[in-house]
Amino acid sequence: MSKTPLPTKDTLEQKWYVVDAADQRLGRLATEIAMILRGKNKPTYTPHMDTGDFVVVVNADKVVVTGRKNEQKLYRRHSGRPGGMKVETFDQLKARIPERIIEKAVKGMLPKNALGRKLFTKLKVYAGTEHPHTAQKPETLIINTIPARGN
After folding, report:
1. Which positions carry the signal peptide feature in this UniProt record (predicted)?
2. CATH of 16-64+97-141, one of 3.90.1180.10, 3.90.1150.10, 3.40.190.10, 3.30.70.260
3. Which of 20, 33, 76, 89 is most buried, by CB atoms within 10 Å?
4. Structure pTM?
5. CA separation (Å) from 7 to 14, 104, 119?
6. pLDDT in tens, 51-102
């Protein structure tokens, strides 16, 4: 009886990808990134293992949302103390920490367990066009989301 071979450290190759988030729709971009982090685009995909690749996102400050989500989409966080709820809109968070928007969107699409936390460490998000990962020789990955109209 033959068993399905599991990927090992020797057989598994992890690539680095650079994704340009400029003028990309937030949700469409986040789903593609989550799929790559998970490794679902590879034939070696195994649900309980980290078979995914590293993703570097640049131009996070230029990501867009549709409709009135700029002022209606809310990001909540809690300090853990009574009355410690902080709420801010998409625009406010984009002005303060634009990287956090993509991080939160992708993290919500990863498994809610130890594997998901490990996969999340392979996501690197930067507001500008520069990133410190040139030594890893990342490949440019083009993600075609719906082009933004007038936003």
Report:
1. none
2. 3.90.1180.10
3. 33
4. 0.92
5. 12, 29, 16
6. 999 999 999 999 999 999 999 999 999 999 999 999 999 999 999 999 999 9
